[in-house]
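This section describes the prediction task in plain terms. A model, or a person checking by hand, is given the sequence of a single protein chain and must write out its three-dimensional structure as a string of tokens. No templates, partner chains or ligands are provided. The sample shown here is typical of the held-out split.
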Amino acid sequence: MFSEQALPPLQPLISLKHVNHWFGTGEERKHALKDISLDIYPGQLVICTGPSGSGKTTLLTMLGGLRSCQDGSLKILGEELNGASKEQLAKLRLNVGFIFQAHNLMMFLNARKNVRLSLELHDKYYESDMDLLAEEMLCKLGLGDRVDYFPANLSGGQRQRVAIARALVSRPKILLGDEPTAALDKESGRTVVNLMKELAETEKTTIIMVTHDNKILDVADRIIIVEDGRLAGKEEEEAFVSKMRDDSH
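The expected answer:
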């Protein structure tokens, strides 16, 4: 069932007010995001969908501190990111896990070491057995027998699961996924989504996924639709959810 999160905390983890974003200059300038206002709360799992080229990935990368906010207000973890320095954005990214369509694995490291890389960024894991934590997460994703394999010896779906393990293992406050289940079969995709849901519920991790995978929409606390750089209204959201329910039967 789709549901709004019950009694969310008063303070959103992510808050956008009248955010605009452009690419290019002069006549080639493209208005990619148009007057976006949105609040997302701790522990919410939000799915972002809409046509290709509508601005979904631009919005996602801004929420992860990969782009600066040009116009409007963007607050993440209480910090204003309009005009933020590179240092501020880098600090924010330590609280964010990323899962991209391109898995971006280090080809000269095995699966365990690729996942361990994420832990090595955080002081709090220095006293932990990082290899063990990496192996445990790989096991959860069905890769317990592949921990010593290098990416070249893994299938596309297995590489994507290693990338997902790397994003999940440090238990980030915010997890961003760009089509995270696109390369996975139905069973693997469901395993990944269930793990994300568990992280949202137990760790209060805020998860935002861009996806066209209608099979995983049922886990969302909220679905937002981006069309031509704008957020769809409440009625359009509800109509979309209703149509997806009908199509799934």
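For orientation: The chain has one domain: 41-67+86-248.
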